[in-house]
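Subgroup meeting minutes
Present: P.N., E.W., G.H.
Scribe: E.W.

1. P.N. recapped why we're keeping a running log of single-chain structure predictions: easier to compare across weeks, and new members can see raw inputs and outputs side by side.
2. G.H. added today's entry (49 aa).
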Amino acid sequence: MTLSVDLFYSFRSPFSYLGLPKTLKLVAEFDLAVKLASTCCSGVCRARA
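Output recorded in log:
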């Protein structure tokens, strides 16, 4: 059974940028599957959909 982690990533958030290396390390160490969800607070994503 493969474990998975949900990753909510925002390109505008410095916290997403700072947390990404640690997340990738955990993924490699524990062989996790990543479910990536991009978040957008400015409404740009909704305008393009």
